[in-house]
Specification:
The chain has about 425 residues and is α/β, with parallel strands linked by helices. It folds into 2 domains: about 200 residues, P-loop containing nucleotide triphosphate hydrolases (Rossmann fold, 3-Layer(aba) Sandwich), CATH 3.40.50.300; about 190 residues, Rossmann fold (3-Layer(aba) Sandwich). The chain has 15 helices and 16 strands. It has a 7-stranded parallel sheet, with helices on both faces. The protein has a 6-stranded parallel sheet with strand order 8-13-12-9-11-10. Strands 14-16-15 form a 3-stranded antiparallel sheet, with no helix packed on it. Helix 3 crosses helix 4 and helix 14 packs across helix 15. About 45% of the residues are buried. The structure holds adenosine monophosphate. Adenosine monophosphate binds next to helix 3. Adenosine monophosphate (AMP) binds next to helix 3.
Length: about 425
């Protein structure tokens, strides 16, 4: 079905056309009519599914013209980067209207935000902390909010924002439309749904549990003392344009970035302890090709629309299986093939099993050819009669990527 059949306002359809979108994505097909009909919507969609337009287009269609009564749409986001990205999308969708959008987040001065809020924005995209500051200072009121969107709700929970979110929701009128997006629905989010939403309809289309078919993903088992050597060697051998390296902690990300810099890679770092300016420079530099490697933590990188990544390296195995899908989803976008490598040490085994169960696939184990492995017993398990307890799933060695692939004997169910 075409966008033109979904009931969107003509000016918004023009905006969609200018964005170059031809067909609606599955979540857009389901969510747009629901939001237009005034239903509260829960979407389990993740980024990359087109969820911003899924809620953005119908909300903007219903707003009509700019009026100066105050914010009529409030969108809460867990990170500054996501807030900026979503505001840009709204601004683009609304380019053939006179609607005004603005973004509010911490880590920067108040001047510009105060001016834009004073001038009257129809749509406010915000992170919770700074939004509360504006409410306390009286630079923003929420009593005219008609549409509330709680985006990436599970990530806001992880980051400890739920009490702030509740305080914000309490300041919005009860008669409003509410949408909530979350990759997972833990009990605290369920409670929030019960409390903040009215007869919501759930859309689960976007919940992706399988990696894109265009992504080739493999695991490199190694001993913990050789993780960094293996990373450096991988980068040396791989013919890449741009690499996203994921680390578990901010400290780890800084350490890995330092190491790569010393090896003469052009590196930027993205995590939540960096200043707003540093984060913007890192992202922009990476998008423009000034940096070939971006080292990031999950929270900082979650949901960011970073296109054209040729490789993703999981320096640390993700703790949450859905993060594996998020991370490797950065490559292989828009049908371009990409490679995703996960470096695995012995203690990662339970997390790797959890990921493999989640995606219903065994991820091939690969040995880097001519790499001086100090602990070759990692690969012993592939031999008949080997003791259990080492690395899982290896049966026979095949060459892949200039290395050896220890292909699993059977696919796990
Ligand atoms: P999102 O999941 O909202 O972060 O969107 C992911 C990417 O897909 C963004 O770059 C959007 O501009 C793009 N996108 C969203 N909807 C469509 C569509 N219907 N056709 C083509 N691209 C889209």
């Amino acid at each position: 079905m075409a966008f033109s059949k979904l009931g969107l306002a003509p000016a918004i359809l023009e905006g969609v056309k200018a964005m170059g979108y031809i067909d609606p994505t599955p979540i857009q097909l389901r969510a747009i009519p629901l939001v237009l009909s005034g239903k509260d919507v829960i979407g389990s969609a993740q980024t990359g599914t087109g969820k911003t337009a899924a809620f953005g287009l119908p909300i903007l269609s219903k707003l009509g013209q700019h009026n100066s009564t105050g914010a009529r749409v409030l969108i809460l986001e867990p990170t500054r980067e996501l807030a900026a990205q979503v505001e840009t999308a709204f601004h683009d969708f609304a380019r053939f209207t006179n609607l005004k959008t603005t973004v509010v987040f911490g880590g920067v001065g108040y001047g510009k935000q105060n001016d834009e809020l004073k001038a009257g924005a129809d749509v406010v995209v915000a992170t919770p902390g700074r939004l509360l500051d504006h409410l306390e200072q009286g630079t923003l009121r929420l009593d005219k909010v008609e549409f509330l969107v709680l985006d990436e709700a599970d990530r806001m929970l992880d980051m400890g924002f739920l009490p702030d979110v509740r305080r914000i929701v309490e300041k919005c009128p009860r008669a409003r439309h509410t949408s909530l997006f979350s990759a997972t629905v833990p009990p605290q989010i369920e409670t929030l749904i019960q409390w903040a939403m009215h007869n919501p309809e759930t859309i689960e289309i976007g919940a992706r549990r399988t990696p894109a078919e265009t992504v080739k993903h493999v695991i490199y088992p190694v001993s913990d003392t050789q993780k960094t050597d293996l990373l450096l060697e991988l980068l040396k051998r791989v013919n890449y344009n741009s690499v996203l390296v994921f680390c578990r902690t901010k400290h780890g990300a800084d350490r890995v970035a330092g190491l790569l810099k010393r090896a003469n890679h052009a590196v930027a770092v993205l995590h939540s302890n960096r200043t707003q300016k540093e984060r913007e420079q890192a992202l922009q530099g990476f998008r423009e090709g000034k940096y070939e490697v971006l080292v990031a933590t999950d929270i900082a990188a979650r949901g960011l629309d970073i296109a054209d990544v040729s490789h993703v390296v999981n320096y640390d195995v993700p703790q949450h299986p859905e993060d594996y899908i998020h991370r490797i989803g950065r490559t292989g976008r828009a049908e371009a093939t990409g490679d995703a490598f996960t470096i695995m040490i012995a203690e990662d085994a339970p997390h790797v099993y959890a990921i493999e169960r989640f995606i219903s696939q065994t991820i091939p184990r690969v040995k880097l050819e001519n790499f001086n492995y100090t602990y070759t017993a990692l690969f012993e398990e592939s031999k008949p009669g080997a003791k259990p307890g080492g690395f899982p799933g290896k049966a026979r060695a095949v060459r892949v990527h200039g290395g050896y692939h220890f292909g699993p004997a059977k696919r796990r169910r």
